[in-house]
Amino acid sequence: MMNSDQNPAPFSFLVLADIHFGQFSGAPEFRLDGIQQDGKRLSLRDSLISTVRNLSTKPTALFVPGDLTSIASPSEFKGCVETVLGIADAIEISRDSVFFTYGNHDTNWRICELGRKIHPTEGKFPTDEHYNHVAATIGGLYVPKANCLQEGPVLGSGVYSSEGHIIFVLNSGFYCIAEQEYPHGRLGQEQLQWLETALNEFGSTTNWKILMVHHHPFNYTYPKPIEDISCIEEGAELVDLAGRLGIDFLFHGHRHHPRLFTESRTDWKTSMTFFCAGSVAVDAEHRDTGHIPNLFHIVSINNRLPNRAAFGNIISYQHRTEGWTPVQNRVETPLDHIHWFGCLTSSHEKNSAAITLIEGVIKSKETDSVILPSRNELSPQLLCCPIDELNSLLSSIAREHGFRIVGKYPDDVALLKSANGTSK
Length: 424
Hints:
- By secondary structure, this protein is an alpha/beta fold.
- It has helices at 44-53, 74-90, 109-114, 130-137, 189-202, 235-244, 347-365, 380-383, 387-400, and strands at 11-15, 61-65, 98-101, 150-151, 158-162, 165-169, 208-212, 249-252, 259-263, 272-276, 295-304, 310-320, 323-326, 338-341, 369-371, 403-406, 414-417.
- It has two domains: 11-341, Purple Acid Phosphatase, chain A, domain 2; 347-417.
């Protein structure tokens, strides 16, 4: 049902990226051997379920943006799907609202080898490049399909819809085979052309338009300098297409290092938010030797801003010995625990919004002390500021008006008149 202002209904979903079920998982419940860690460490899976069930924001869908497995073995696919669907059941998400796509780890390179190796006991077989197709589609034997409006040209690609949102899913891991000169994501022209047709066909609605893929469409900075040539080969074309045809929110996995930002270009329908999800279960070696924690995220898209940009927040948790805890914004995890997105604001606009807030509160109360609005009551320009930036900005503006800030967002914040200051 649409809201009265013709916004789509709010939509919240759980993102479990880069599970790497099998030998590259750092959690025993996501491995085939079932080796248990010491008793001091809570189960990653059980703690995740408990954490999500206790949230006030209840996700109604679950997305797995690729790298379900470590080496794309049948047992890994089977184990991963059973575990993910078990999580969905435990947090009361319908299995029809669980969406998967595939990454580079979901192509079975051993099957690729069959197309060009000499069998050790049965003599020579002719080379057969079609084994690559079999290797890239093995997951389809084990991964269930949600109800699909339109299937794409390769496994894992398609268009899905439910009340208030439409989901476009791509498979950037389909061509990740051993013959690649360097491992990287690729869509292929057929999949890219299909997406353009699907966006034109299904993208004219006012529903939230969400795109899920595994690889990143462009390079990101990393906690330390590192060469990264694994992004999508047609990333520039994908981003341009998504922007021109009205995607609201594009998210992916692969990088294991979370990032979130909103961007706009002159020929785009509206601003688009890009989200790189952290890995939920991969081992420490694949997370900057463990400096980047395992992560899961709840994405909530709440409403449209006046410029039609999708506005919402992402709640992120990191895994520690004691279980899942609110993420801390630092180089390894550059997200606030609740990080808002959708509002593109210049430094001047942020400054103006802060001045409006401080002056409005001072004039309305005309006392030496006053409580500021809660964080959720702030304007979008201020909500989308990272917490540390927001607190620093408000403190600076308060000083200019003869006040000082007591407390910090996201907790309660008050203005107190400075001993030697005078308010304007």
